[in-house]
Amino acid sequence: MVHGFVVSVLALGLPTLAMASPLSVEQQRDIDASVGEWVAQTGAPSVSIAVASDGQVVYAKAYGMARLAPRRQATPQTRYAIDSVSKEFTAAAMLKLQEEGKLSLDDKVSKFFPELASADEVSLRQILSHTAGYRDYWPQDFVTIEMSHPTTVRAILDEWGKKPLDFPPGTSWQYSNTGFVIAGAIVEKVAGQSLQDFLRAKIFAPLKMQGVTDADQTALGPADAGAYTRAGAGPIRPAPKEGQGWLFAASELAMSPQELARWDISLMARSLLKPQSYDALYQPTVLTNGRNSHYSLGLGVRDDRGRLVLEHGGGGSGFLAANVMWPTQKLAVIAFTNNDWASPDAVAQRVAFVVLPPQPAEARARRVFQDFQAGVVDRSLFTEDGNAHLSAQILADQKAGLSSFGAARLIEETGEAMRGGLLTRTWKITTKKGVLTVVERGYPDGKLEQFMIGKAD
């Protein structure tokens, strides 16, 4: 019943932010179709997206219902809790204080809170990079008994910041909300004001992020997105709210995707902080054993086949968020949703599939798949044996089997290896009607020996 309800909402056509957009009509149509399918397939009450390109927000749209009872349609201005994406801002606050000469990331925690565990061994840089060893107070994917009651920063520091470290500082990477509560407390102690006031003055006001709010101290209101959860494939129900104080500095912010896009634009343009601060945000932390942690300061950092990607997700009770940036391409894709079972990472990937130019291997895979759906082949792409295999009957059979799946919504490379002198790539193709798998084999000169498609189990 819920699934059909979401489909009917999508059919109404939802508000789109009017703006001059470099996205073509075809791109906008493909985004809407792909994201709409995701909402219908997952049963998510809503998802809201924003795309930033070349220094401006070029597209923003919301799909579905921000609240189910009473019904309220999601709009591009609807605010969602972004949970751990908030860590990007706590890290930026500490970098700002370093720029002002009020602290150094190489300072030890003992300079500010000497009573915490191993405080004279842990640096501020390590707490921002999740390499300090402080035990995370919220590894569960639900609100615990303790977290259903209010707390204070002091109580979290006393209970969790004084536990023995899970590992020697710098030797491992382990996600820790506790570390970011410590970071936020240090910001407040050094700045002499609340973390929220500091962020408003130093980041939100300069970037005109006027709608940002603290969802920790004050629950989101009726004009904002409601939080929803479900057990298994059961009915959708309101999600419980975390107790006041638990989200401080680690997961406390709420905003619209467009507002986060303004931060992303500044981050990719390196326009708000000093160059050294951006260097620290762009550079992944290396552990003492030389291993890349793929995380800098409040940001995931990875290489995607030669492309730099900065990203962070958020997950709390009834909300999930995805924030992905390609700085070299000056592109950011943001997706917020008011559920805790269907990840908006998939939405961000679907949108990026439309707006991010594909790498050469992926571009070829897209082309071959489209050709096979149409029952044709560009024989210049294949070897003699490959072309012999692709007979008229094979092409006709492929068209009969593949055309009903519809357009590809996402093509992901899932593996790469060598066999018999052939470079073997495996792909996963997500379509409206299902998921397909591909085994591609080719020679170093670029000619394909095979591109064999099957339905995923």
How would you describe this structure to a colleague?
- The chain is α+β, with helices and mostly antiparallel strands.
- The chain has helices at 2-12, 25-42, 87-99, 124-128, 153-159, 177-191, 195-204, 257-269, 275-282, 345-355, 360-374, 384-389, 392-402, and strands spanning 46-53, 56-68, 71-73, 80-81, 213-214, 228-229, 237-238, 253-255, 300-304, 307-316, 319-326, 331-337, 408-419, 422-431, 435-442, 448-455.
- It has a seven-stranded antiparallel sheet with strand order 3-2-1-12-11-10-9, with helices on both faces. Strands 13-14-15-16 form a four-stranded antiparallel sheet. Strands 4-8-5 form a three-stranded antiparallel sheet, covered by helices on one side.
- It is globular and about 75 Å long.
- The two termini are 26 Å apart.
- Mean pLDDT is 94; it is low at 1-20.
SSE string, helices as H and strands as E: HHEEEEHHHHHEEEEHHEEEEHHHHEEEE
CATH topology of the largest domain: Beta-lactamase
Q: Biggest sheet, open or closed, and with what strands and sense?
A: 7 strands, antiparallel
How much of the sequence lies in strands comes to 15-25%
- Beta strands, count: 16
SSE blueprint and pairings:
Layout: H1 2-12, H2 25-42, E1 46-53, E2 56-68, E3 71-73, E4 80-81, H3 87-99, H4 124-128, H5 153-159, H6 177-191, H7 195-204, E5 213-214, E6 228-229, E7 237-238, E8 253-255, H8 257-269, H9 275-282, E9 300-304, E10 307-316, E11 319-326, E12 331-337, H10 345-355, H11 360-374, H12 384-389, H13 392-402, E13 408-419, E14 422-431, E15 435-442, E16 448-455
Antiparallel strand pairs: 1-2, 1-12, 2-3, 4-8, 5-8, 6-7, 9-10, 10-11, 11-12, 13-14, 14-15, 15-16
